[in-house]
Structures
1.
Amino acid sequence: MTRPITHVAAGVLVRDDGEFLLGSRPEGKPYAGYWEFPGGKLEPGESALAALKRELNEEMGIEVVTAYPWLTQEFIYPHATVRLHFFQVTRWKGEIQPQEGQQFVWQRPGMLTVAPMLPANTPILRGLELPNEMAISNVAELGESEYMRRLARRLTGGLRWLMLREPHLERDDFALLAEKVLALAKPFGVRVIINRDPELARQLGAAGVHLRSPQLMALQERPEGLDWVGASTHGGPELAHAARLGLDYAFLGTLQPTPSHPDGDTLGWGGFARIVSHGYTLPVYAIGGLSLGDLPAARQHGGHGVALLRAAWNA
């Protein structure tokens, strides 16, 4: 007999400094003492967002001002099957005060200091390490010298992640460029993702690999030996396959016309939102003709952030 699914809204409160909030489960509840993202069950006829606002007010006495739909996670516990609808909450009113005997702690991505985590919440921690902007290299248009100059400026300005993608270069030339970029980025702790070449990513000690959509669809399992694996997708089937393989993130596009493809097919924000709204377990970046100014729109439509090519290197 199939169990009914309990729908839960969960809030990932994120401060401007990047720290996020965890709460402990109070005595008397299943998994008492475990840590989780605060939230609670949807009431009949209630939307996930409405439930989130109600639960966070009841649990910690705050009023949610800005919340972005984010990831969906389904988990089977011994006592219930739950489907969690996660939101990133970036603005709220009021001081956080425990209302149900729980504890709250602020944590930094990738540096958890409390345990144990409630199992359904653990995969969400991975997504919190990802930036809202994924910058994509553009040596092809800028030239190597100018690109490296702009990269140095972005590194000193706080760039966190970079995807190195230069399909015009032969593999040996690309490897030489990658070595230079990795050497420049290393002192800043920037994670560099190599496009389409898992073997080269492993060889150079890069943070991971980003797969082209045909590569993604040809895979039956996640590439081994790489910390981070992402992929380009253009629709629901590819995005679902990336999720099944346990990839860490995906690009979804093209959102808007681009200089290189001015007449190509585009999703628009409506098409992007329709695909992402099916609920996926991995963060999704909007890509195609965007700038950092499109980040709020991407998040409002269910995206994790924006992937930028030309706009990442504009003055």
2.
Amino acid sequence: MYLGFDLGTSGLRTILVSEGGEILGSEEAHYEVSHPHSGWSEQDPAAWIAACQKTLNALRAANPAAVTAIRGIGISGHMHGATLVDKNGDVLRPCMLWNDTRSAQEAAKMDGTDGFRALSGNIVFPGFTAPKVAWVAKHEPEIFAQIHKVLLPKDYLRYWLTGEYFGDMSDAAGTSWLDVGKRAWSAELLEKSGMRRDQMPDLVEGSEAAGMLRSSLASDWGIEGPVTVVGGGGDNAVAACGVGCFSEGDGFVSLGTSGVILAAKECFSPKPESAVHTFCHAIPNTWYQMGVILAATDCMNWLSKNLGPTPAELSGLLGPTISGPSDIRFLPYLSGERTPHNDSRIRASLIGMDVGTGHAELTQAVMEGVGFALRDNLEALKSTGTDLKRVLAIGGGAASEYWVEMLATLLDMPIDLPEAGDFGAALGAARLAIVGVTGADPKDVMTGPKVAKTVSPRSEFSDAYSEAYEEYRALYPAIKAIKK
């Protein structure tokens, strides 16, 4: 039996999987995100440990015999977080999360330094780990002086599980300290950002062993025999393992808290100026590129919080099919934006409302704004030479038939919807553990889900959506000029 942990922004999901891939149990535990100041986003790593304990105890209660036979653990986690620990392994301050943008000045300075884009293959975004730690050096020097290790969120959870400091290539690629082409820490990038190699964990590939489960935890959970904890990876790379996306031409669109269009790559071919992320995959000798928007379903959550009905109720107001674009434009920059703008200061806007605008009209505008932003991401990916013919839709937003049909039309490609079931990052993490323990070929383990339905573009609305998209594109520079 194998465990897959998916350490998300708002909660931890744990699944129990047999060697043949059958999911025997699944549990979730949730925790809070703190926003003490504008642009700040923090979390207490102790909440991750409590969530891990809670989900394991629940799985053990429901599946005692299966839990006894666990032999491997894989971990997926939200990327870019700065979890700082001292020489005793104690956490020095709350973890600064992926959507924390306080380090914009530090990021801009690093991004303008020779070597950073060339070696890391990416713009240094404010959400990345290196500028966050530089912010700590400037504003919390007493904390910075005590740093023994900088760990990404899932790697802190691994440290608690094993007592050892390890990381993996896919997650480390989002720090701005990794030579992404060589899949190794860059001594040059570390030195230029005031860090040392000994402050970094050792790196392994996603399916390689990265410690053994501590005997005390194995005893507490009733596990018999040794348990290997593998490297795991960043959430999107591991989600790609869960849906079988690791060959050139494979891709998916994710409508989660953030929005992603991801394409697997067989070689390292970055184009940093596009604001496309080029990262190591969790599979050896493989990379991926993705465009990222910082708020996708988060925009619907925001709308729901202000209007009252749930996101599902708001979505239901629109019905299952599209009938053309709205006259209202929504720029979904609630927390700034990454691809293609790399702008941490820009904020969201609603433009074109009138006295008759109601819940349905606002919902349509918000969904379209997210769709237009993902179209921006696709155009950025195309500029790097990436060519996607179709994608799989994952994430909570994919439950909206209206949203998926609108995206298919905006992106001008078929979108496949998987059959209902467990897949994605938690399953991908368990699959990495299976490969690591058994030595199986990833292609035999990381198969794609069965497709329940393919949503095709609505060609009769293509021109109208293209015109609306051009209107949307023209709004960013106008809003940016006002925002100065």
